[in-house]
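TA notes, week 10

Several of you asked for a full example with nothing omitted. So below is the full record: structure tokens for the whole chain, then the designed sequence directly under it. When grading your own attempts, check the secondary structure regions first.
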């Protein structure tokens, strides 16, 4: 590995460690037994009421749940099924997270 590659890898690992540390603090209760609000935790994983057409790939940390979620064709968080261009649904239900990956050549 070159020095640049080693530096990039170290920065990548350090960023992930920091994100996991922030998540660990958010899912613990405070001294009064209160927990973080859903949107605080959600914003770390995938901002609420957004989809992959609105945010960049670096705005989410879905690798915390499953690395494969990084390879999606469409991703949405807390949006109505009706508002998602991929569903064709009239439902106003809002899944916390919806991800699709179309099967295709080379995938």
């Amino acid at each position: 590995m070159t020095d640049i590659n080693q530096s990039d890898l170290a920065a990548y690992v350090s960023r992930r460690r920091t994100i996991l540390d922030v998540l660990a603090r958010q899912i613990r209760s405070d001294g009064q037994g209160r927990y973080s609000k859903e949107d605080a935790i959600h914003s770390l994983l995938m901002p609420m009421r957004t989809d992959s057409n609105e945010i960049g790939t670096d705005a989410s940390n879905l690798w915390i749940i499953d690395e494969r979620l990084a390879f999606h064709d469409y991703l949405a968080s807390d949006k109505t099924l009706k508002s998602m261009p991929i569903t064709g649904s009239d439902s106003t239900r809002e899944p916390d997270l919806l991800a699709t990956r179309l099967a295709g050549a080379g995938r």
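The chain has two helices and three strands. Use that as a sanity check on your answer.
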